[in-house]
Amino acid sequence: MIAAVFAGLGAAGVGLILRMASGKRLPRWIIPICGGLGMLAYQIHNEYSWFEHKQLQLPDSAQVVSVEERPAFWRPWTYFFPMTTAFTIVEQDNLAVTRTEGERLVEFILYRFEKQYVDQVSHQAWLMNCATGEMLPLEGETRTPRTEEMRRVEASAPIHRAVCPEA
Question: Are 111 and 93 in contact (CB under 8 A)?
Answer without folding.
Answer: no
